[in-house]
Each structure stands twice: as structure tokens, then as C-alpha cells.
Amino acid sequence: MLPKTHITIAAAATVVVTAAILMSPSSEVEAKRMSYSLDLEGNTVKQSAPAATSPAAETAKPDAKDAAPVENKTQVTVQDTTEDTSPALDWQEHKIRSGETLSSLFRDAGFNDGIMLKVIHGDGEAEKLQRLYAGETIAFATDSEGELAAIELKRSLLETLRISRTDDGFQGETIVREPEARPAFASGVIDGSLYIAARDAGMSDRLAMELAGIFGWDIDFVYDVRKGDQFEVVYEELYLDGEKFDTGRILSARFVNRGEENIALLYTDSNGDSDYYAPDGASMRKAFLRTPINARVSSPFNKQRRHPVLDVVRPHEGTDYAAPPGTPIKAAGNGRVHFAGWKGGYGRTVILSHGDNIDTLYAHMSRLGKGIRNGARVKQGETIGYVGSSGMVTGPHLHYEFHVNGVARNSRTIDLPDASPVPKPELARFRQFADQQIAQFEVYRDGNQQLALARDD
């Protein structure tokens, strides 16, 4: 007879050994166990387990006593040989022409209106496919069974509406690419007009108009510009995939008019708001545009002018700008529409109230701008109407009046109030920025001079 203590110990040992046997993995299970480590330098995944796990491979294994010893840390690099198994799509592309509809585009691509409705009623931004414009490109993709799999509407080089078929229908999203902006420099001397000189300097017409707009509150580019005036501009050139495709904003500009230097700097404050400022922090903008239209003056402000239709001396309390019918007319400043409609000899007219007892009047329009009605709010530069010849006139033009306390003033000579300057908490940051930007003109100027000398050689 054994002591009870010995029997208890033996029983416990039996339980432990049995559990260990049951929990130990078989050789087949052990062969399938893998560990991975990341090679940070080679960007590969390393695998430390044997690759063969099939029964045939197990049969071909040598006996353990004949096998070469394997170190525990041996790792095998696994190459990513995964192939894209998604089915290839067949794309057909079409440039949208004026007069074409979404229905006709689907029909030409081989799909009926039922498919079209499923697409535009899909999730995300799929419904935006209904807004089409001439010049855009649309592409339809079909799978191997001829079913519609995807649509891409290329609105521009930067923006594409992509719609894909999913298990639940169609899903749309807008893909926007961010171009790379590189600074560029242009300079010139005016001999005839700013636009000719800007084009000779390699600038687009859009950049020339933007330059005129920046300084337009202080310089009248129809009457004030003189032969010999100079300009220097630092602007953005936009690149996609290493190729230039457009120009962006003007970053800084210098314009010498009649010997007087004017400098404008594009500054973005800590709130993310951008505007053009002079080096002292004053805004380049005024609370009012000097002229609400890009056109020549056909009849100036004149209290003693003889009326061209009535042939009597009648004060001309505004400025007339001759322009082709349909030319956009801009609001001179922020305000509210006080009157919009027909006003006797003025024809189709808009009157804006701007506060501080200042009103502006725009007459002889062919039609009003979208949303322009009594009480509507407008922003400076917003189109409020289009040039016409309504009312008592001899030809198409804009008649523009500027009233202070109910009295007509000459809009071309009156001192216009400035817009808000750089906020005081931002001044120190702005001055540092301004010094850097002004110094940049010298760098670009010297670089251009060296390039010109090299070409001469």
C-alpha cells in the first residue's frame, strides 16, 4: 500500500503530462506556423516558416536526423507577386458638344435611360453628373459582359467626377488634383498699352487683367498710363506631372506710373484670408471700385454738358462708358439693391445703397444680373447687369453715377475710402513678409539681367 500523499502526486503528474500532450501542436501544424518581420530598409516582408505544406511535400522531407541544422533566426524574403485580378474595363471617351444631353450621351454609349436614372440616383455625388458643360470629357467603362462599370466626367485637368458600380448600386465622388505652384517672374516697359507689354513679357491676358485690377483703385489704365511706365510681376506657374498647364495668382507686383512706384503684395493672414496690401500694410483695395466696367470713357462728368438727344444744356451727373452690348457691369462696392427696374430716360437701372450716405447708379442696361432685385445684397465686383441701350440714349453704354448725401460727385476724381488694412496683431508678421517679398524683386531682376547678358554673348 502506498501512502495517500504519493498517490495524489502521481495523479497530478498524470494530468499535467496528458494536458501537455493534448496541447502540443503536431508537426503539420508546426509547419504551417509563420512569423513575419518588416525589413525597413528594403521595404519587404520576411517570412521565417517553410514554404511547403502540401502532403507531397511532407512525404519528400528527409528524416530529422539527416536534415541540415536550421538556425532559428533564418528569414526568407517574400516577393510580392500578387497580380491584379480585377477584370479589365473597356473605356469609350467622348467630348461633350453644345446641345448634347446626358440622355443622348448614354444612348450613344449603348445604355438606356433606365441605366442613366440608376446612375444619377446613386450614392455620394453621382447626381452631379446631370450638370454638363460643353468642352468637358465624359468616358464610359464596360466590363467583360458589356455592363456599365464606371463613368468619369473630366471637368478640367484638376477636377474629375468618378462614378463606380458597387454591390449596392452606383457611388460617385469628385477627385480634385492639387497642382504644383512654382514662382515665375515677368517685367516690361509700356510702349503702347499694358496688355501689349504684358504679352511681350510672356504674361497671359488674364494675368494682365489681374494686374490692372490690383492697381485699378489708384491707377486708371485707360487715361493714367504713360509710355515708359514699368512693371514687375511675380506670379504662379501651375504644373501637373512636371508639365506646365496654366498660371495661377499674382504673388507680388510693382508698377511705376509717371515715376511713382506702387507695390502690391499678396498676404495671407493667420485666419487664412488673402488680400493685396501695400508695403505699409494699407489695403490695395478701396471700399469702391474706381470704375465698374472695363471700358473707355465716352462722356465724362460735366455739369454744363449739352444733352445729345434733347440738344439742351443739362448737367451730366455721371460718367458714360462705351462698351459692346452684353458687357458685364460690376457693383462698385458692397451694398444693398435700393432700386432695380425701369427708370424713365435712364432705362433699365440699378441703384445700390452702400451706407455712409453713399449710393451708386447704373443705367441703360440691356438686362439685370441674376438675383438682382430690390432688397438683395451684393458684393463688390459682383455682376449686377449688362451694357445695353435702354432709355433715352443714342448707342449702347453704361451711365454711372456716384452720390454722397444725395449729391452727384465725379466718381473718377473723388477720394475713395480705403478697405481695411492689415490687422494690428498681424503687422509684425506682415512687415517681415513684406521685406522678403520686396527683396525678391531684386533677386529676379538681377537674374534676368544675367540671363540677358549670357544671351548677348
List keywords for this structure.
Nuclear Transport Factor 2, Chain: A, Glucose Permease (Domain IIA), 6-stranded mixed sheet, single chain, 10-stranded antiparallel sheet, alpha+beta, 457 residues
Fold blueprint:
Blueprint: H1 4-23, H2 27-32, E1 36-39, E2 44-47, H3 55-59, E3 76-78, E4 90-95, H4 102-108, H5 113-120, E5 123-124, E6 137-142, E7 148-154, E8 159-166, E9 169-176, E10 180-189, H6 194-200, H7 205-215, E11 230-240, E12 243-257, E13 260-268, E14 274-277, E15 296-299, E16 319-322, E17 328-330, E18 335-342, E19 348-353, E20 358-368, E21 377-378, E22 383-387, E23 397-404, E24 407-409, H8 427-456
Parallel strand pairs: 5-9
Antiparallel strand pairs: 1-2, 2-3, 4-6, 6-7, 7-8, 8-9, 10-11, 11-12, 12-13, 13-14, 15-16, 16-23, 17-22, 18-19, 18-21, 19-20, 20-22, 20-23, 23-24
Helix pairs in contact: 6-7
Describe the structure.
This protein has helices at 4-23, 27-32, 55-59, 102-108, 113-120, 194-200, 205-215, 427-456; strands spanning 36-39, 44-47, 76-78, 90-95, 123-124, 137-142, 148-154, 159-166, 169-176, 180-189, 230-240, 243-257, 260-268, 274-277, 296-299, 319-322, 328-330, 335-342, 348-353, 358-368, 377-378, 383-387, 397-404, 407-409. It is globular. It is of the alpha+beta class. It folds into 3 domains: 90-176, Nuclear Transport Factor 2, Chain: A, CATH 3.10.450.350; 178-285 and 420-457, Roll (Nuclear Transport Factor 2, Chain: A), CATH 3.10.450.350; 296-409, Distorted Sandwich (Glucose Permease (Domain IIA)). Strands 15, 16, 17, 18, 19, 20, 21, 22, 23 and 24 form a 10-stranded antiparallel β-sheet that branches. A 6-stranded mixed β-sheet has the order 4-6-7-8-9-5, with helices on one face. Strands 10-11-12-13-14 form a 5-stranded antiparallel β-sheet, with helices on both faces. The longest helix has 30 residues, at 427-456. The termini are far apart.
